[in-house]
Structures are given as structure tokens and as C-alpha cells.
Amino acid sequence: MSSTTNEKIIAAKAALKLVEHGMVVGLGSGSTSAIMIELLGKACREGLNIKGVASSGISEKLAIKEGIPVISLDVAPKIDINIDGADEFDTKLQLIKGGGGALLREKIIAHFASKNVIIVDSSKKVEQLGSFPLPIEVIPFAQRKIMDELGQMGLSPQVRLHNGKEYRTDQHNSILDLDIQGQTDLETLQSSLINIPGIVETGLFLNTTNLIIMGSGNETKTFQ
Ligand SMILES: O=C[C@H](O)[C@H](O)[C@H](O)COP(=O)(O)O
Predict the structure, then answer these.
(1) Which of 77, 95, 131, 148 is most buried by its number of CB atoms within 10 A?
(2) What catalytic activity does the UniProt entry give for this protein (predicted)?
């Protein structure tokens, strides 16, 4: 097993301790969240009584396979805890997410969750966000014009591809990956992007996270 995978498992095991009987749990997306879902599934099979709200079709399928009762956000009375991964984080608990294209539902769940816990391996910690291109979800109808505007803003948008075709999200939208290196005012960047009609959401998670659990070697480090 790679040291990165080991760190993801260590972080997920630490997060599992925060999940209590009766909770509604937000299920993140990506490889670290998949490890979390597998751990939750095992705990459910051993008697833990929780319900999950999935942030992507892939996570929903995995959760069902693992035996976690999955409910839709609409019928969830509340989300007690949301456990998700990240592509980058800084010590101000700001994140870039969406490497796997699930940023929109992830952000919706993060907004409605009482507590947001991010689990990561140590490669995800950065001084300043932006080495990882920022994913944004856009309506395909407006994609070309949005790309022109983002190009003028110096953000070098790239259309995300999958198997040689344009990638589509669970909502059938496109993902553009932006170069935000050197951008220090992330709140303003978020506002500028979200104010462009046709941009549905961005992968900047600036004010949602309560706790980050990072696997570091054989230990965990926390940021809160
Ligand atoms: O869209 C995907 C999500 O934001 C993931 O949580 C993020 O890409 C991190 O994924 P991983 O745990 O595979 O590094």
C-alpha cells in the first residue's frame, strides 16, 4: 500500500470516531471519501445505525453496495456530520475541491451540514491554494462565452475531458479547470466567478470547514 493511501485510511479511521448512532452523515466523493464510505459500511454491518446523504452518483452506489441506508437531501431532517476529501487545503481551513467533478453537490451538503470534517493525506496541505487547478461547474449552453470571459480575467480555463469527450457532472454540466495561482483574495475571486451567469458553482470552499484531519505518516494532525 502506498504511503498516501495509508494516510487516507488513517484520517478516515479518525473521522469514523466522530460518527454516532442515529446520525445523518454526508458522504463525500473521491478516493479518500470512498475509504470513509467503506469504513462506515463495515460499521453499519456491525450495528451502527446511520443514514447517508451522498454527494455523487459514484458515492451513492458505493454506499448502497456497502449497506449504508442512503436518503436524499430533501428528506434528510438534518445532516449531523459531513465527511469529505479535498484536493488542497491551507491552515485557514480553505479548500479546493472538485477534482472528481462532484463539487456542486459537495458544496450543497457542506452548506446544510451541522459539522464539516475534511479527511486528507499530507500531500494536500499547501501554503496558498492554487497549485491544483480550480474546478468550476458551468452550464454547457454558456461554456464558450464563459471561457472567453475567464480568459480575459487571466484564468486560462481548460475544458475538462473524460475519455476524449467533454466531462459531464451528475447534473449534466461541464467542468472548467482554472489557473488561480497567485490569486490571494479568494473571497473576491469566488464572488467574481459566481456572479457570471452560467457558472453554477466553484470548487473554492472558503468558510464551510470545521475540522481537517490529515494523515501524516502513521499519525493524524488536525486543523481547526
Ligand atoms: O470532486 C471530488 C471531490 O471534491 C474530492 O473530494 C476531491 O477531488 C478529493 O479527492 P481524493 O480524495 O480522491 O483526493
Answers:
(1) 95
(2) aldehydo-D-ribose 5-phosphate = D-ribulose 5-phosphate
Share of the chain above pLDDT 90, in %: 99
Q: What is the pTM of this model?
A: 0.96
Q: Is the CB–ligand 1 distance for residue 86 below 6 Å?
A: yes
Q: Residues of CATH 3.30.70.260 domain(s) within the chain?
A: 134-202
Instruction: For domain 3-124+206-217, say whether CATH 3.40.50.300 is its number.
Output: no
Q: Is 80 in the pocket of ligand 1 (CB under 6 A)?
A: no
Please state which CATH number belongs to domain 134-202. Answer: 3.30.70.260
Q: Are the C-beta atoms of residues 89 and 118 closer than 8 Å to each other?
A: yes
Is any ligand 1 atom within 6 A of the Cβ of residue 31?
yes
Nearest CA to 120 among 26, 208, 15, 203?
Answer: 15
Q: How confident is the model at residue 21 (pLDDT cuts 50, 70, 90)?
A: very high
d(CA 193, CA 188): 9
